[in-house]
Amino acid sequence: xxxxxxxxxxxxxxxxxxxxxxxxxxxxxxxxxxxxxxxxxxxxxxxxxxxxxxxxxxxxxxxxxxxxxxxxxxxxxxxxxxxxxxxxxxxxxxxxxxxxxxxxxxxxxxxxxxxxxxxxxxxxxxxxxxxxxxxxxxxxxxxxxxxxxxxxxxxxxxxxxxxxxx
Length: 166
Ligand SMILES: [Cu+2]
Known about the structure:
Layout: H1 25-61, E1 71-79, E2 82-84, E3 87-90, E4 95-102, E5 113-117, E6 122-126, E7 132-137, E8 142-148, E9 161-165
Parallel strand pairs: 1-4, 3-9
Antiparallel strand pairs: 1-2, 4-7, 5-6, 5-8, 8-9
This protein binds copper (II) ion (CU).
Residues 113, 148, 150, 152, 156, 159 line the site of copper (II) ion (CU).
């Protein structure tokens, strides 16, 4: 529409005046509103992205790690009241193979124990002198308690070892 020759009855045209660069005031207002809306949407979008990143980080912490094809074997001696070695360290994704034996010559008394590692659903009964294999995939990173799952005497609750998955 040609605004320059299109005067309203009162002879004043404010809303639709064309400026020297050919942009009307109405267009400027519309552009300003669009800009404000876009900035608003951008802000909301960034917030959503940020929230998504936080959620992904939280997920990564409890991420289930797939087997890496490497098996780490340990001979573990179980005794009243502890484990040797007391700390077992593996990498995330390792298949962990523990050959656990209750020491038949335990000076504090050779009694049956059990090995428990909750995070990896390990709960295996250990008979005195019988090598018992416990195998699992270290699919979570962190430090996990190795405990005795069989009431075995006064030191039972202190019978703790540690599994470190890096
Ligand atoms: Cu025990």
